[in-house]
Amino acid sequence: MFQPLPFVTRLTFKGSDRPEAQEAVERLRARYGDVGDENAQVIVALGGDGFMLETLHDTMQRQTPIYGMNRGSVGFLMNEYSEDDLLERINVAERAVIHPLAMVAIDANRKQHRALAINEVSLLRQTRQTAKLRISIDGKVRMGELVCDGVLLATPAGSTAYNLSAHGPIIPIGAQVLALTPISAFRPRRWRGALLPQTARVTFEVLECDKRPVSAVADNFEVRDVVEVHIAEDSSASLSMLFDAGRSLEERVLTEQFSA
């Protein structure tokens, strides 16, 4: 169990490059002060979901909890924007702790590229040719050939993002599983993916990589012309997000399953 935060009085504010986010940062700094990254108990992120992911990546080593407010176009990971009673809201907020996926992508020159993904790692075809992939779980080949536009492995926190758009399952935050979801599978056409334990180690091998080049993307970090990609949850890395009381991440994921 994670201990509750001490009473929060020290904040720092970060905003996306959208004008409304930058204006909000200035107003909030004038009202609540800004102690800077090193001294802040909580980071307040102003923007959309993309900016929340960017802030989580930028502050991963510091492990400071992040409270987001929506000043962007999409705000599933953000709280409603209000300048009033900010400290009170943060001090009764509900905490969600997530673990990212660690990706090791090997390109055509056998160079290794490492990155962490909070939402998902996706493999995508680079040209008009479909991708051909071999999928192994914990060292055992589970699918010898998947012909598709791509495939992704999503965390519970990311299951409502690209994974959901690709018709993957929504995963409750505490379910301790990962979603393996094909993107426009051609063969086997009826394969809809799989749910894997969070301890699973997944390997994708790119077949016919010269003819059918594939890129690997960990959130917003892309590696092109990959030949092999290894993915596993990094349980040593913990990221904290804060949500208004009654609007926890668990509640949002549950509500999403009943939305029209």
List keywords for this structure.
single chain; 260 residues; alpha+beta; six-stranded antiparallel beta sheet; 5 helices; 16% helix; elongated
Brief summary of the model shown:
The protein is α+β, with helices and mostly antiparallel strands and 260 residues long.
Q: What can you tell me about this protein's structure?
A:
With 260 residues, the chain is α+β, with helices and mostly antiparallel strands. It has five helices and 17 strands. The strands form three sheets. It has a six-stranded antiparallel sheet, with no helix packed on it. The chain is elongated and about 60 Å long.
How many strand segments? 17
Overall mean pLDDT score? 93
Classify the secondary structure makeup into a structural class: alpha+beta
Uncertain runs: none
Helix percentage range: 10-25%
Please, what is the oligomeric state?
A: single chain
Q: What pattern of helices and strands is seen along the backbone? A: EHEHEHEEEEEEEHEEEEEEEH
Distance between the termini: 34 Å
Rg over C-alpha atoms, rounded to the nearest angstrom: 20 Å
What's the overall geometry?
elongated
Number of helices: 5
Which strand-content bin applies to the residues? 35-45%
Main sheet strand line-up? 6-5-16-13-8-9
How would you sum up the major sheet? 6 strands, antiparallel
